Amino acid sequence: MLNELQNKINARVRSYLNKYAQKAEKLLLYNYSRNDAHIARKHIVSVRGYKIMDREMERNIKDYCRKAFGKTDFWPYLALYAEIRGEFIPGWIPEDFYWLKILPQWNPNPQNQLCNLKTFDHKLFTNFSLTPLFLRISDHFFNPEFHVVSEVELMDFFKNYDKLIVVKEEFGRGGKEVTILKSTEFESKKLKSGQNYVIQPFVEQYELLNRLNPNSVNTFRVNTFLEDDGSISVRFVFLRFGTNESKVDNLASGGNLLFFDLEGNPSDSAYDKLGFEIGEKHEKTGFEFSKLIIPRYKEMLEKCKEAHQKYPYVRLIGWDVCFDKEGNPILLEWNADRPHIDALEGKFGPFFPEIFDLKKA
After folding, report:
1. Which residues, other chains included, contact 114 with Cβ-Cβ below 8 Å and sequence gap of 6+?
2. Beta-sheet strands, E only, within 204-328
3. What 3-state class would DSSP assign to 216?
């Protein structure tokens, strides 16, 4: 009897501790995120030499936050967006509100985690995802059909293949766990024990994208959304490209972006991750961004929409797509656990204006 009572007390204590730990974690995330917004806004003002925000705009933003979100706490990111855009636009989603309130509802755990299992993409998105050469799962090598391959067979293949390959860790972020090397240089002992990998052929990209920047595979990020009526829409699209001879195009690794409308027209200028214009030509190659017209652009959008229909367990997905040398759109990765909106929401949004009734706000 006493043991049963003690177990109930322990369970209740654990429940309370878990509840308050979650609240503390959210508070830390809020404060950290908002501090980032203040730092970024100060950086923009410092670089540009003047600020957009004045006291009247700050009052308007806080008043909007109170009506749209129930309190003024979410104003820092809206202030950052205003500095990026040059004005305040109702309908923007503050990044902290997006991460902590909206995205957990749209893309709940654990449904949002399948995107990290890169070794399964080619099965889930057949005829769109890049077919791997080999998979490394549970410390064993497999072919794309999940048949075990001996290390001798693997190394013989790579010796005869003699081309560039791409080795990706599952759950990798920002291109930091991606290795590009010649197949003859592959060494299995360099792979981490217990870590899964996908080994892919290196994609020779479409001629126009190669002229833009030949040092990285330049990828489109297509963001699709599961609408209330069950249809799939494309909300926004941008192209990431590498700079300074980087082998990856990720914004987190110093890449820049070019915004595209849904008809396939690129923005005149490219931008960095804070929305600063970086000019109308690539700094190294001199390629004019306005000339980047991709013939099968709309086919890429349709393929992303079809892929989302195969996985309707989350509402927002970011698809990373490249074009091979024949001009075929190929899915490299997809993101459902952390699809970003970031400074793009301020520069080109709002991307989800229907979330808040602007008449009420």
Report:
1. 120, 124, 311, 313, 336
2. 219-226, 232-241, 256-260, 270-271, 277-279, 316-323
3. coil
Domain spans in the chain, listed from the N-terminal domain onward: 2-106, 111-126+205-338, 134-201
Strands 140-142 and 148-149: antiparallel
* Bridge partners, 182 (sequence order): 164
Distance CA 175, CA 252 (A): 9
pTM flag (> 0.85): yes
* 234, β-bridge pairs: 224
Q: From first to last of its 361 residues, what are the pLDDT tens digits of the chain? A: 545 555 555 566 555 555 544 555 455 455 556 888 999 999 999 999 999 999 999 999 999 999 999 899 999 999 999 999 999 999 999 999 999 899 999 999 999 999 999 999 999 999 999 999 999 999 999 999 999 999 999 999 999 999 999 999 998 765 668 999 999 999 999 999 999 999 999 999 999 999 999 988 899 999 999 999 999 999 999 999 977 655 544 545 557 999 999 999 999 999 998 888 889 999 889 999 999 999 999 999 999 999 999 999 999 999 999 999 999 999 999 999 989 888 899 999 999 998 875 444 4
Q: Would you report the helix, strand and coil content of the chain in percent, each value rounded to 5?
A: 40, 20, 35
The CATH architecture annotation of domain 111-126+205-338 reads 2-Layer Sandwich (3.30)
